[in-house]
Amino acid sequence: MFSAFTTFSNPFSIPRFIAVGLGVAVDITTVAVHDVELHHDKRARTLKHLLKLNHVNHSIIYHQLQYYNHMPHILVSTYLLGARAQHINDVYDYESKELEGWEDSPNEVSTYDWRDHLGDRRFQRAYVDFFEDELVLNGYEWQKVLGKYLFQGKKPLVNCLVAGLGHPLIHLGYAYELSSRDLAMEALGIAATSYNYLHKYLDVTSYTRNSTYSTNSPIEILKRVAADKKFDGLFEHCGGNNINLLFQNHEGLILEHWNAWQISNPTKQFEDSQRAAVALLAATQEGRPDRYDFFFVHLLTTSHAVRILLPEIPPRFHINVLRQWWLLTLAVYIAQLRPAIEQDSVLDYDHGQKNWSWIDKQALEGEWSMDAHYVKGLRAIKEAAEIWDDKDMFYLKAGVKFAEGFTGWAGVGLLDVEEIVRQP
After folding, report:
1. Which of 224, 303, 379, 416 shows the greatest Cβ crowding within 10 Å of its Cβ?
2. pTM, whole model, 2 decimals?
3. What are the φ/ψ torsions at residue 108 (nearest 5 degrees)?
4. Whole-angstrom Cα Rg for the chain
5. Whole-angstrom Cα distance, residue 103 to residue 96?
6. Is the pLDDT assigned to residue 392 strictly greater than 80?
């Protein structure tokens, strides 16, 4: 019934990911860094100026403190896909229409009380100001500031980067990819204001315990979740608000499957997780080829962010980053009512003669080229194909299928804190 990777746990054994988390890192290459501060061509200058303009003029969270500012994500993605300077400008003009300016926080944040307001989005301005002050004190070495506030202490912020649907993780990935101190301080601000209960599952060791089964395969666990009748009827409709209800009322159910993932070979398991992330977006259409889930694309773009971060962060945090991404993935999959994952719908897809250049063109010139999540999703699939062996063309076919089949986002509930994308 299940693959050869499945084993059943000895209830007295130590979960294997505890051991590997102490010293074994995910061994992947560092991504190329595109420091636009050092490049002087028009495209790079355009990106540099627009990122600074967004940093100064627009808050990181807006619309009654519900939506995240995606401006840097789509600007950087279009730039790295080869967009011309004018298109980068056009993207900025389009995306900035709904963004909002900064508002003062209730009070400032200091080194003595910076943890007191974690999770309070009203303090977004205060947190960014605080981290930028720390940047000055550290000689503008943004990596030192990240090192101090992400990785130190009993409850380091790195253990809660998937809060806020993973936006702290995503933003931090772009900061490293561009070697941008502005994006890094914004990412810290997003991490601080998004901080929530999810941190405890990494900070408190008692949540890591043996499951009734174990496997190395994320896809296998997702299939078990899909077949688990204990999740039937928990939610009437899909939507992000189901995530909080899931942890509040059914914590044991999700932890059973979360702890089943055995990370004995971190590099291989990360590769498997990236394939699972692509499958969740591209292979869950259930007979509707245009149905692409808004929340599943966040699992893909957070996975891409993990790929960027792993070679950059201390190895002792690698397993925690993988496991918190996996916790978010399970929660989102359950919240979206566990659609069937049909990988053959990707593998059997007729992509004709279309290649990555064709996909890039859709991202930059197609109907949905102003949709940040569409563009980021395509690029994330492309980057996964470049790092892993794509002999079966799974990633290429997934990219073509998504690029030409997408007609708008599905899966957004009426009360979700993320808006469904505006029609171009």
Report:
1. 303
2. 0.92
3. -80, 165
4. 21
5. 17
6. yes
